[in-house]
């Protein structure tokens, strides 16, 4: 396995100290560990089938494409602050 680039949090409003803590806590500077913990490689293998519209356009590496989408989703799930432009709406069942 080759050394992978650290995972990107994107533009956030986190302080440098908070971002460093989150990077350590969630293995963002160790993508191999992050991938293994989240089962990214196994999940990517099952999600690499292209949709009809994607087949028309093509993909050089559908499995790598699936892997990147899964990583991004996992990072946003674990660290909601990594998507400051995303608004989470939570409703109670009686609303």
TrEMBL record:
Q: What name does this protein carry?
A: DUF5709 domain-containing protein
Highest rank taxon of the organism: Bacteria
Q: Where is this region: Disordered?
A: 1-95
Q: Which organism is it from?
A: Saccharothrix lopnurensis
Basic and acidic residues bias located where? 18-45, 52-79
